[in-house]
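quick one before i forget lol
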Amino acid sequence: MKVSEVTVTNVAEYLRLEVGEYSQALLTSLLNTAKEFIKSYTGLTNEQIDKYEDFYIVVMVLCQDMYDNRSYYVDKNNMNKVVETILGMHSINLL
């Protein structure tokens, strides 16, 4: 699935949340934040991130982590290894 095709419903299903157990606004915010994080980390555009279907799992893992912790602090020691590995494979802004 392309990143642009991921919906709040997909995120809710991944988080195993039933209708009424979550805020639509919160999940929308988490989804948008995950997408922006991917673009910022990799230096890729919306169109470019859609080329890599493995970014779907990155979106879901980021959303789950942000939902579970209600915050996400990224530094070199705390980044989720799955996220770091997949994003690192596609990064173009490695300075």
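fyi The mean pLDDT is 87.
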